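A reminder before we start the practical. When you read a complex entry, don't treat the lines as separate problems. The point of joint prediction is that each chain is placed relative to the others, so the output describes one connected object in space. Small molecules and nucleic acid strands, if listed, are placed in the same frame. In the example below there are two entries. Take a minute to note the order of the lines before looking further.
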Amino acid sequence: MTERHIVQRKRNRGQYDFEALCAVLDDTIVCHVGFVQDGEPVVIPMLYARDGRDLLLHGSVASRLLGELAKGIPVCVTVTHIDGLVLAASVFDHSVNYRSAVIFGKAHEIEDPDEKARIFDHMVEYMIPGRTKEARPANHKETAATTVLRLSIDSFSVKQRKGPAGPVDAGDPKNVWTGVISLSTHCGPPQTEQDPGQVPDYISDYRLDADRLNRRKS
Amino acid sequence: MTERHIVQRKRNRGQYDFEALCAVLDDTIVCHVGFVQDGEPVVIPMLYARDGRDLLLHGSVASRLLGELAKGIPVCVTVTHIDGLVLAASVFDHSVNYRSAVIFGKAHEIEDPDEKARIFDHMVEYMIPGRTKEARPANHKETAATTVLRLSIDSFSVKQRKGPAGPVDAGDPKNVWTGVISLSTHCGPPQTEQDPGQVPDYISDYRLDADRLNRRKS
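Here is the predicted structure of the whole assembly.
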């Protein structure tokens, strides 16, 4: 891990173990992919699936972005959760509880149609465990329309803040409410034009968190 | 707006009016800031507040990132909402409902202590309307410890997908559940070590959405 990847500020908030990285990655499905185009930065949101120590990305073969990334250029992928607003007695001490992962790596394109179809399955299963038992797998026409990239995680850092607001300083007002407003991703009831009685458990019980992958295994 | 900022893929999903941009920006408080460092991309999550047609960013004066951005280098700021998972009969047709804004601009540093203190207030008020009626404003020691950046939005694009899954294709299985699992940001009950009876309305009623700014005005 090079110096660039060491959390510089608030070093006690930095973590570099892979388990901490997975906890951040597996808790959502959207990342922000940064790359350099004509010397300038571009940041695009993309869906991803983790596959062991790699990230899988995909998009249309017509996408400029995917074409750039497939060249193996340096990429920075960042995933962030905002877990709460931290309200302190002073404006300055306000903060947020968060978890973020910053990954540096390079992507390469997967070209074999069968491997691409397997990756499609993996991506859908990563996002919605149980789904590939029902949905039709991709055919070769569909894999040919899609660029699939495998991004090796060359280096990463994980950073977080959690916990309550700090104590009220001596000079600060005592009668101000201090504490945390927690934030989380909520799943609404499944919306369908079908008979709602037919909703499978893996959909009605769905939650977008890292535990969805464990619930699938059990 | 240069060619780079035109949504290339799924052009019917692109929007370029400022109102559409505000709707995406005001619905959250975290963005992903991309810039080029030593020729390589870096993407960092940051809190922001919109101030008219600018974004306000801040961080410690010790932050390398803020120091880089303060030089006025090109920056790409991206904000993304995932509003739902779209489940189709085929793996290939799975999608997400989302809204995203990609902004290109340059930042400059705000140095006047009083203006910095006003920006602190604006940022906290943007994130938690009503808060600055209670919390102590920043003093000069605190503003001196903080780099404040104003980023002019030079160009932007907004992209979204919304609505149900597409119709089931003739060749796809008919007995697969199709529909949308909606996702939203949920605020838990305020957590404090104070007497819960003292929670002000602007905290107990807090929701992290664009409407919080209208609720403040009313």
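Discuss with your neighbour: Residues 3-82+97-163 of chain A form a domain with the Pnp Oxidase; Chain A fold (CATH 2.30.110.10). What might explain this?
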